[in-house]
Amino acid sequence: MGSWMLVWILCSTVILMPVCLDGSIPVHFKTGRPLYVALGQTLVLEAEFKKTPDDVIDMVTWERERGKETIRLSGAQGSRISLEKDDALLRITDVAEGDFGIYKVTVTDSNGYQEHDSIEVRKIEDPPEAWIARVLECVVGEHDKTQWDSPQFSWLVDGVPVTNQTGRRLNISEVQGVNYTCVIKSSLNVTHATHYEALKESVRSCCSGLIAVGLVILTAVCVAAG
Predict the structure, then answer these.
(1) Checking phi first, is residue 17 left (phi over 0); if not, alpha (psi -120 to 50) or beta?
(2) Nearest partner of 64 among 108, 109, 120, judged by Cα
(3) What is the DSSP secondary structure assignment for residue 196, as one 8-state letter?
(4) Does the keyword Membrane apply (predicted)?
């Protein structure tokens, strides 16, 4: 009797061992937090489930908490709310005041273990400003020479170094000048490339001068004819 009991215990241990070793499936949101969105826009929340090949997701639920009220969300057909990518992605169109709050996603595996993550969604009060920027980009030509380092970029505006610009791009809307020089330094060489912004001004001045001269000549002809 004791031997059979021992065998039964060993068999049960072997059978239940995978269940005991398996834990819950970690879940986290892909975006930073808190997340901001404007009224009337679309909100997209996507969760990532870190599961092993043996893990089986039994259920994914979404909830929104506002104050003391918690609402379970579902992607009903024809509504503003939809669930995609096997319920890993929540999409809400035409965001309204009631859509702001704390969103919680919970994943339940086949063993009943649960994990969740939460993210706060806030209404943006002061949207970022936008403007048109004129950007110069320094491009290095393709070559088949192997080198140990990567090119380093720096900029000169009218011969003066721009201390806060060390990348391959320069916003000339913020840095006024006549000529813009990009310096590319690497173990292969030190190369300079210059852009002359004054060319456009020269053309504009030239055209203005020609128009002025034409008007003077036309006036003189009219006076003489009169």
Answers:
(1) alpha
(2) 120
(3) E
(4) no
The per-residue pLDDT for 99 is 96
Buried b (16+ CB within 10 A) or exposed e, 81-97: bbbeeebbbbbbeebee
Domains 20-123 and 133-139+150-226 share a fold: yes
Output the pLDDT for position 165. Answer: 65
The whole model's pTM is what? 0.58
* pLDDT reported for residue 191: 87
* CATH code linked to domain 20-123: 2.60.40.10
Residue in the structure block whose two tokens are 């491009």: 139
Local structure of residue 176 (DSSP, 8 states): -
Say which CATH topology domain 133-139+150-226 has. Answer: Immunoglobulin-like (2.60.40)
Domain extents for the chain? 20-123, 133-139+150-226
Q: How many helices (DSSP H) and strands (DSSP E) are in the chain?
A: 2, 15
The C-alpha atoms of residue 108 and residue 115 are separated, in whole angstroms, by: 7
Q: What is the mean pLDDT of each run of 10 residues along the chain (226 residues)?
A: 55 48 81 91 94 91 95 85 94 95 95 94 87 82 79 90 80 86 88 77 52 54 54
Element (H, E) at 208: helix 198-225
**Radius of gyration, CA atoms only, the chain:** 33
Q: How far apart are the first and last CA of the chain?
A: 135
